[in-house]
């Protein structure tokens, strides 16, 4: 019976030594400062918060189990500690934070406890300004965080923060600053003294630049407030193409508009592209283009718009050129899926040769006929010319000319689409002055074009 009693007594002697192995420290930067019997938070303005980073260290040479880590006292809270029970190896640490906040002036204290170690925490609440934030559900006291909710990317949401002096003393407004992207303070923030009963305010704007959670920190004196908001990509409108073209033919001018299926929820931009699909061989026709130049036209739109703007204009003018084929218009909004791009196609059918100039001149022993025009099929070939006197009598003709090889060689190297200029010289035996009029026929795969009786 003696040995069990001696073992029990030995346990009673060793138990206090196990409790004495933990120590509290304040973490300042990269250093630790041991906490004495009392740690004083100092003076804290009414409604403000003060936090301290603390560390519990196992200072013994043996592992120990932590079963208790708590703070007990009005206004004091502990956060960030380990899950209990926790085994701490020799010299291992557990970090945590104690925060104090209270709105009623006076002295406060709390007991910070862990296994075998404790410390008293003290703080004094002094008169301070009252901070509130105006929300959709009303004005509430400013807490440690403010959620701005969701906002469309590119659109601003604003919340107002109120500062008031509800004490009987004149109090200075502390410095107010903000750090973090997508949030910004209003141009002017309160400063100076607030007299009893006076109030002021400032605005914070949330303008998300990207989708997802966005964060910032609002600092008011010693108080920090975590700001958050969520950016949402706007529902981009789907473009629609409207063409204004009187005749789907070569050598025409038209215009194109880009409208939307619903009013735009955000501002944006896009591109209207004109692609040429010629039905004939040869170089691309440069005259098929937007009037402003090129095969692309940038457009913009603002919130609420149902129609795009082309540099301030509601439509982009274009020319159909002088080549048969398809003109494909594509509208794409920047940032929208490629599947939301829309297209409209205009088919320019093969047509008779179009003549824009028919003229003739005389010289000694010859006459010269000038024909200018376009052939959107690039197949012009057979030519015939007839000449008449002043009375309308036929002097000669029709004179047939096979222009096929010349046209073919010309169009093969031409960089002007289907446009051409033709000059035909005819030797004259006798008096050229007797020739007063002429007619000309130009044939291509679509048929024959005949000029009116044209005077010299």
Spans of at least 5 consecutive residues with low confidence? 1-20
Number of helices: 2
What helical percentage do the residues reach?
under 10%
Quantity of strands, as a count: 38
β-strand percent reads over 45%
Shape: rod-shaped
Structural class: mainly beta
The average pLDDT is: 91
Gap from first CA to last CA: 148 Å
Q: Please identify which CATH superfamily of the largest domain we are dealing with.
A: Immunoglobulins
Q: Rg from C-alpha positions? A: 45 Å
CATH topology of the largest domain: Immunoglobulin-like
Architecture of the largest domain, CATH level 2? Sandwich
3D architecture notes:
With 456 residues, the chain is mostly beta strands. It folds into 4 domains: 19-126, Immunoglobulin-like (Sandwich), CATH 2.60.40.10; 130-232, Immunoglobulin-like (Sandwich); 239-348, Immunoglobulin-like (Sandwich), CATH 2.60.40; 354-455, Immunoglobulin-like, CATH 2.60.40. 6% of the residues lie in helices and 54% in strands. The chain contains 2 helices and 38 strands. The strands form 10 sheets. Strands 2-1-4-9-7 form a 5-stranded antiparallel beta sheet, with no helix packed on it. Strands 13-12-15-20-18 form a 5-stranded antiparallel beta sheet, with no helix packed on it. The longest helix is centred in the N-terminal third of the chain and has 18 residues, at 2-19. The radius of gyration is 45 Å and the shape is rod-shaped.
């Amino acid at each position: 019976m003696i040995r069990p009693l001696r073992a029990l007594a030995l346990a009673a002697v060793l138990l206090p030594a196990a409790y004495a192995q933990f120590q509290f420290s304040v973490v300042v930067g990269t250093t630790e400062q041991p906490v004495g019997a009392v740690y004083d938070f100092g003076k804290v303005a009414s409604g403000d918060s003060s936090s301290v980073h603390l560390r519990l260290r196992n200072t013994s040479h043996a592992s120990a189990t932590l079963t208790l880590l708590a703070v007990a006292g009005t206004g004091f809270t502990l956060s960030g500690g380990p899950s209990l029970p926790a085994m701490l190896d020799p010299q291992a640490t557990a970090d945590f934070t104690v925060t104090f906040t209270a709105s009623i002036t006076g002295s406060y204290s709390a007991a910070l406890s862990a296994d075998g170690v404790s410390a008293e925490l003290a703080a004094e609440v002094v008169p301070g300004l009252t901070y509130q934030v105006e929300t959709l559900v009303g004005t509430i006291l400013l807490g440690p965080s403010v959620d701005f909710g969701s906002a469309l990317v590119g659109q601003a949401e604003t919340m107002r923060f109120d500062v008031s002096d509800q004490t009987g003393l004149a109090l200075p407004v502390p410095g107010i600053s903000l750090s973090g992207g997508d949030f910004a303070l209003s141009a002017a923030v309160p400063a100076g003294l607030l007299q009893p009963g006076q109030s002021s305010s400032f605005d914070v704007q949330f303008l998300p630049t990207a989708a997802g959670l966005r964060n910032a920190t609002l600092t008011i004196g010693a108080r920090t407030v975590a700001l958050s908001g969520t950016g949402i990509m706007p529902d981009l409108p789907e473009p629609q193409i409207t063409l204004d073209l009187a005749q789907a033919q070569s050598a025409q001018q038209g215009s194109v508009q880009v409208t939307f299926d619903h009013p735009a929820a955000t501002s944006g931009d896009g591109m209207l592209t004109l692609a040429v699909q010629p039905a004939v061989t040869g170089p691309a026709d440069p005259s098929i283009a937007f009037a402003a130049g090129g095969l692309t036209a940038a457009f913009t739109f603002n919130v609420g718009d149902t129609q795009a703007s082309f540099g301030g204009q509601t439509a982009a003018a274009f020319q159909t050129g002088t080549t048969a084929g398809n003109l494909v218009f594509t509208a794409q909004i920047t940032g929208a899926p490629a599947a939301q791009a829309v297209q409209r196609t205009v088919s320019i059918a093969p047509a008779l040769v179009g003549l824009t100039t028919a003229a003739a001149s005389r010289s000694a022993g010859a006459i010269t006929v000038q024909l200018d025009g376009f052939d959107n099929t690039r197949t012009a070939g057979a030519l015939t010319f007839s000449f008449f006197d002043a009375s309308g009598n036929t002097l000669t003709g029709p004179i047939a000319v096979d222009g096929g090889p010349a046209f073919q060689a010309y169009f093969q190297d031409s960089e002007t689409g289907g446009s051409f200029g033709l000059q035909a010289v005819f030797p004259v035996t006798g008096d050229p002055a007797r020739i007063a009029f002429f007619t000309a026929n130009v044939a291509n795969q679509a048929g024959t074009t005949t000029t009116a009786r044209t005077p010299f």
